[in-house]
Each structure stands twice: as structure tokens, then as C-alpha cells.
Write a structure and sequence with these properties.
Order of helices and strands: EEEEEHEEEEH
Number of strands: 9
Shape: elongated
Strand order of the largest sheet: 3-4-5-1-6
Structural class: alpha+beta
Largest sheet: 5 strands, antiparallel
Helix content: 10-25%
């Protein structure tokens, strides 16, 4: 019987139309659930707790990322920090039987698991750099901001809408 374990979740930093980070240094922090490493617009969240599915891991990591995004939304620039879930690195911790050859290649996309032999895609894009503001530091790591109540989310959303209308 397989004993799956989520090693890490992978996210992509979605760049806004008006912000670019000009080679910022890596940003590292951790919570009780995971170790976070942001570098080259890629966020790797290595799990410190045992979870078997990407959904369980995301239930621990996503609230941290959403709070971080909202804190940056309120204190810096609108849309400056957005993370898009990409993939999960999942292993089977069950030892193999002596003499048996066994292997899995598992890809977790959108909560569905499938066996895959290859997964590749190319992305190209063009942008008008004249409208982009270059920022040389990433937002600081999340500290104590927590956006877990409906009232807090409502007030934050109203503030963000007001800020874009001014």
C-alpha cells in the first residue's frame, strides 16, 4: 500500500502589469507547517508536516500566502504579490520489496493525480516595459497580519477598491 507524502508545493509569482522585480535576492521564511523559498519568481514551499495529498498541503500553505498577498495589497501596491499554484512534489515513502522494481511518476494538477512520463510546455510573452515600475526588493515576509475574518476581508477589499478609484 502506498504511503504518499507531499514534499513540496510549487507556486509561480504572477507579475502585475505595473511591477517587476529587478533581480531581488532570495526570500526565505518558515511557518509551523512549511519552509518557504522565493527565488526567480518561483515559490517552493517544503512541507515540515506530513500530509498525503496536495489538497491537505494547500490547506496549510494557501492561507499564509493569501494573508501575505492581502498585507502587501494594503501596505504597498495593488496586485504586487500574487501566487499561482503550479504543482506538488509527492513521493511514496513505502519501501520497495527486495528484488522488485517499482516506480511512480506522479503529477498533481488541480487536485487530480495522474501517472505521467513527461510534462513540458513552452510559454512566450511580450510586454511594453514603458509602463512597468521596477522594484528592487520583494515585499517583506508576512509577520503578524491575518485576514481570517469576513469583516477584515470586507474592509481590506473596500480599501483596495477605494485606492484604485483615487
Amino acid at each position: 500500500m502506498p504511503d504518499f507524502h507531499v514534499v513540496a508545493l510549487k507556486y509561480r509569482l504572477q507579475l502585475s502589469d505595473h511591477i517587476s522585480y529587478a533581480k531581488p535576492p532570495p526570500l526565505v521564511f518558515e511557518t509551523e507547517a512549511a519552509h518557504f523559498h522565493l527565488e526567480n519568481n518561483q515559490l517552493r514551499c517544503e512541507m515540515k508536516l506530513h500530509v498525503a495529498t496536495s489538497e491537505q498541503a494547500r490547506a496549510l500553505v494557501d492561507p499564509v500566502l493569501r494573508d501575505w498577498e492581502m498585507e502587501v495589497e494594503l501596505t504597498r501596491n495593488r496586485g504586487e504579490l500574487r501566487f499561482i499554484y503550479e504543482d506538488a512534489e509527492i513521493i511514496d515513502r513505502t519501501p520497495s520489496t527486495p528484488g522488485a522494481i517499482r516506480g511512480h511518476v506522479m503529477v498533481a494538477l488541480g487536485g487530480a493525480y495522474s501517472v505521467a512520463t513527461a510534462n513540458a510546455h513552452l510559454t512566450s510573452y511580450a510586454e511594453d516595459i514603458r509602463t512597468r515600475q521596477w522594484v528592487f526588493t520583494l515585499p517583506r515576509t508576512p509577520k503578524a497580519f491575518c485576514c481570517d475574518s469576513a469583516v477584515t476581508k470586507m474592509v481590506a477589499n473596500r480599501f483596495c477598491r477605494w485606492r484604485t478609484s483615487v
